[in-house]
Amino acid sequence: TLVTPTLVEVQAPADFLRDFHIVDTPGTNSIDSEHQLITERFVPVADLVLFVFSAMNPWGASAWQFLEKVHREWMRNVVFVLQQSDLRSPEEIQVISDYMGELCRARFGREFPLFPISGKKAYLARSGAIGADTLLEESGFLKLEAHLNRVVQSQPARQKKLPEVRTFM
């Protein structure tokens, strides 16, 4: 259903998803004021916020300002996803992860779970590439998926609906 020219509502007829909402917001520094309004409408009611940073530039000021608003004003569970991690060396990813942890401790008094991921490796793995199991493990998606499963399944409203569900993604 088209809600606005830039917002589409899609419904899936699955009991598991009956009261579950996934929102891909248009970004935190969008020029379009309608995009910002969409973000500010949905993030405050989210059970979980996946905050995606690029491994190539995880220091953008607008992203950190928005995160401060999410954490301090809306007090939601935040998970960091560091995308394009395959474009950095493992040592660089470790330095970025450590520094992001330090920033969070300094700004928010705590750290957030951080998952470096490679969409490219996950896509290749899911496409049946040679070494698919290794690629999927290296992609970081399995660790992210396991964390999301724990968070979603630990919510009291979900526990009644998910007794036999093993994976979220």
Number of helices, counting only DSSP H or I runs of 4 residues or more: 7
Poorly predicted runs of 5 or more residues: 165-169
What percent of the residues sit in helical stretches (DSSP H or I)? 40-55%
What kind of sheet is the major sheet? Answer: 3 strands, parallel
Count the beta strands: 5
Distance between the termini: 23 Å
Radius of gyration (CA) equals 17 Å
User: Which percent range describes the beta-strand content?
Assistant: 5-15%
Whole-number mean pLDDT: 77
Strand order of the largest sheet: 3-4-5
- What's the shape? globular
* SSE sequence, one letter per element: EEHEHEHEHHHH
Secondary-structure content class: alpha/beta
General description of the model:
This protein is of the alpha/beta class and 169 residues long. 46% of the residues lie in helices and 13% in strands. The chain has helices spanning 33-42, 61-74, 90-108, 119-126, 132-139, 141-154, 156-159, and strands at residues 2-4, 7-8, 48-54, 77-83, 114-116. The protein has a three-stranded parallel sheet with strand order 3-4-5, with helices on both faces. Strands 1-2 form a two-stranded antiparallel sheet. A hairpin with a 2-residue loop joins strand 1 (2-4) and strand 2 (7-8). Helix 4 (119-126) runs antiparallel to helix 5 (132-139). The longest helix has 19 residues, at 90-108.
From the structure above, extract its key features.
169 residues; alpha/beta; 7 helices; globular
